């Protein structure tokens, strides 16, 4: 099974950024733990702060992978373009968020991606990604 995790803006700062919200573990450390724990899965990772690069990656792999775990971060609440990219592909997408977006600012309660996602996992910290991997398995 071939799965990719795609992270959006500012998630490259995990471990440093607002540890009270996002924890103190870097995503790279977590990713390597997941690669080792799920070593039968061909697991990939991509992060960008740039909306167009995220769209390009979704289009590039959206017909050949078995699953996409997408945390579009702030673009979740603003990007019709990323939502359209998710809608245009055949690879199923699970939308993931580290924090419970519904316990935060009201603008974070809207997701343009959710209507086109296979499912949504929010609020379980980095464990949200592992839950998405398990959902695909």
Written account of the structure:
The chain has five helices and five strands. β3, α4 and β4 (93-97) form a beta-alpha-beta unit. It has a single domain (2-136), classed as 3-Layer(aba) Sandwich (Rossmann fold), CATH 3.40.50.9100. The mean pLDDT is 93. The protein has a five-stranded parallel sheet with strand order 2-1-3-4-5, with helices on both faces. The protein is an alpha/beta fold and 137 residues long. It is 33% helix and 19% strand.
Strand percent estimate:
15-25%
Mean pLDDT: 93
The CATH topology turns out to be Rossmann fold
Tally of separate helices: 5
Query: What's the number of domains?
Result: 1
User: What is the class in the CATH system?
Assistant: Alpha Beta
Overall form:
globular
How do the strands of the widest beta sheet line up side by side?
2-1-3-4-5
Total strands: the figure is: 5
Helix-strand category = alpha/beta
Q: How is the main sheet built?
A: 5 strands, parallel
Query: How do the helices and strands follow one another from N- to C-terminus?
Result: EHHEHEHEEH
Distance between the termini: 8 Å
CATH architectural type? 3-Layer(aba) Sandwich
Q: Stretches where pLDDT falls below 50 for ≥5 residues?
A: none
What's the alpha carbon Rg, rounded to whole Å? 14 Å
What's the name of the CATH homologous superfamily?
Answer: Dehydroquinase, class II
What share of residues is helical?
25-40%
Short description:
This protein has 5 helices and 5 strands; from the N terminus they run E-H-H-E-H-E-H-E-E-H. It is α/β, with parallel strands linked by helices.
SSE order and pairing:
Layout: E1 2-7, H1 19-22, H2 27-37, E2 42-47, H3 51-61, E3 67-71, H4 80-88, E4 93-97, E5 119-122, H5 127-136
Parallel strand pairs: 1-2, 1-3, 3-4, 4-5
Subunit structure: Homododecamer.
EC number: 4.2.1.10
Family: Belongs to the type-II 3-dehydroquinase family.
């Amino acid at each position: 099974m071939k799965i990719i995790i795609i992270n959006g803006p500012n998630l490259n700062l995990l471990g440093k950024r607002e540890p009270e919200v996002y924890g103190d573990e870097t995503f790279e450390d977590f990713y390597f733990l997941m690669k080792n724990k799920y070593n039968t899965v061909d697991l990939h990772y991509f992060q960008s702060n740039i909306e167009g690069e995220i769209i390009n990656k979704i289009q590039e792999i959206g017909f050949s992978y078995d699953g996409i775990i997408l945390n579009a971060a702030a673009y979740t609440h603003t990007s019709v373009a990323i939502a359209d990219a998710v809608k245009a592909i055949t690879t199923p997408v699970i939308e993931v968020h580290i924090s419970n977006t519904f316990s935060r600012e009201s603008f974070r309660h809207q997701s343009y991606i959710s209507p086109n996602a296979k499912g949504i996992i929010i609020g379980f910290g980095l464990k949200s990604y592992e839950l998405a991997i398990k959902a695909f398995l």
